[in-house]
């Protein structure tokens, strides 16, 4: 039996406060939903293993507080991130408009300059 290669990928979830980042992460990883979430303080993460073709991936999915007062987590939170998921509230045009700011911050923090 051939051994499977395992790859760790750090995924961060970004978006304004209250858009559902924690709910999205918990639904994807645990297949559970609760409407009783409290605001995330700082950051939290869950892991999920997924298989694609002959490779096994461990997704380390990081959830952060959307409030500006936690943006100082920046460098440590973004360090080593492979990608991000941008989340907005379909009932809030402002949260959609802010996605570009979240995207730009991600690109700056991971030193990606196309």
From TrEMBL:
Alphabetical list of PANTHER family matching this protein: RAB FAMILY, RAS-RELATED PROTEIN RABG3F
A Gene Ontology molecular function term of the record: GTP binding
Keyword Ion transport: no
Name of this protein: Ras-related protein Rab7
Localization (cell): Endomembrane system
SMART domains, sorted: RAB (SM00175), RAS (SM00173), RHO (SM00174)
Keyword tRNA-binding: no
Bilayer disposition of the protein: Lipid-anchor
Keyword list, A-Z: GTP-binding, Lipoprotein, Nucleotide-binding, Prenylation, Protein transport, Transport
Family indicated by similarity: Belongs to the small GTPase superfamily. Rab family.
Biological processes annotated in GO: protein transport
Domain of life according to the entry: Eukaryota
Pfam families the record matches: Ras
Main localisation: membrane
InterPro entries membership: P-loop_NTPase (IPR027417), Small_GTP-bd (IPR005225), Small_GTPase (IPR001806)
